[in-house]
């Protein structure tokens, strides 16, 4: 694997990993540090990494570093939903209030889910990865990924219905 050929792939993958880390609760400074450390470890181990599995290796190393930080700080991992909508001046105040309430509900539901399911939903719907990118990143087969995503969506619907649908029908 030549370094020159790897550069665009590595930059693109690290941007995706950075976005993911921020979505699952890392502050931007920690996310930047984790990305830099991951790239450093990648270059240290480049000879032993299978080029076909480089993306999943990078992702696993970065996420493991984040969880290590959380354990050291004794902090729970919480998902954060994008705030850019709330900063848009052209959006009506009523829409901002509804969006903020929806954001709170989504975060509440995601933070109750199994970590794998939560991660899959964040990668698919918040980070915007394709099925192929998720399967590559997590190093799982496409059929398995589709099954897990289906279960994740069903779990989300079930928790959301239990937690919030009863409140809205009253």
Structure overview:
The radius of gyration is 18 Å and the shape is globular. The chain has 2 domains: 3-73, Rna Polymerase Sigma Factor, Chain: A (Orthogonal Bundle); 84-169, Orthogonal Bundle (Arc Repressor Mutant, subunit A). 75% of the residues lie in helices and 0% in strands. The mean pLDDT is 80. By secondary structure, it is mainly α.
Characteristics of this structure?
single chain; 170 residues; mainly alpha; Arc Repressor Mutant, subunit A; 2 domains; 8 helices; globular
As for the CATH topology of the largest domain, it is Arc Repressor Mutant, subunit A
Percent of residues in helices:
over 70%
Structural class call reads: mainly alpha
Mean pLDDT: 80
Distance between the termini: 60 Å
Most strands sheet: none
Alpha plus pi helix count: 8
Strand residues, percent? under 5%
Radius of gyration: 18 Å
Dominant shape: globular
The CATH superfamily name of the largest domain is Winged helix-like DNA-binding domain superfamily/Winged helix DNA-binding domain
How many beta-strand segments?
0
pLDDT below 50 for ≥5 consecutive residues: which ranges? Answer: none
User: What is the helix/strand order?
Assistant: HHHHHHHH
CATH architecture of the largest domain: Orthogonal Bundle
CATH top level label of the largest domain? Mainly Alpha
Q: Could you say how many structural domains there are in total?
A: 2
Question: Could you provide a short overview of the structure?
Answer:
By secondary structure, the protein is mostly helical.
